[in-house]
Design brief:
Blueprint lengths: L5 E2 L12 E9 L7 E10 L3 E7 L3 E12 L2 E6 L4 E3 L5 E3 L5 E7 L8 E10 L4 E11 L7 H5 L3
């Protein structure tokens, strides 16, 4: 599969913002009646920025999450302030780490489908820009993590 790299869309009214690239976006397939899944990708920004919001028509609720070990227990929590994108350093959204939680799914995520998403990036100057991403749905190589299958809102 060809790597997908998308540059930030720059609005003429805004000063030029740092270039942001997104590589290898994908969404985990779901089983029937499953109401949540994860979206994953690699994001690199030329200058300090922050991923502050993700929008997708397939989900009623979308949150940026992190998973980390706390006292030998893997915990998942929402990051309402967004995810820092340090200048020049790739930030990987992956299973078991930072990820985008797609909840209150409106349909089953089936292998071969494509999920359109809009990433909202905020620069240090607080100006926002968007990146349109088309993420292929990949099969369940392994069962969804316990946290994903039990996460409900």
């Amino acid at each position: 599969m060809k790597r997908i790299a998308l540059a930030a869309l720059i609005f003429a009214a805004f000063p030029i913002m740092a270039q942001v690239t997104v590589k290898d976006p994908w969404v985990r397939a779901t089983v029937s009646q499953q109401k949540a899944t994860g979206a994953f990708m690699q994001i690199t920004s030329a200058q300090d920025a922050r991923l502050v919001e993700v929008k997708a028509p397939v989900a009623g609720v979308i949150e940026i999450h992190e998973m980390k070990m706390e006292k030998d227990v893997m915990k998942m929590r929402a990051m309402p302030g967004g995810l820092d994108l340090p200048a020049g350093k790739g930030v990987e959204l992956k299973p078991g780490g930072y990820h985008v939680m797609l909840m209150d799914l409106k349909q089953q995520m089936k292998e071969g489908d494509t999920v359109p998403m809009t990433l909202v990036i905020e620069g240090k100057d607080k100006k926002r820009t968007t990146i349109e991403v088309k993420a292929p749905v990949k099969p369940l190589a392994t069962a969804p993590s316990k946290m994903e299958s039990e996460h409900k809102h």
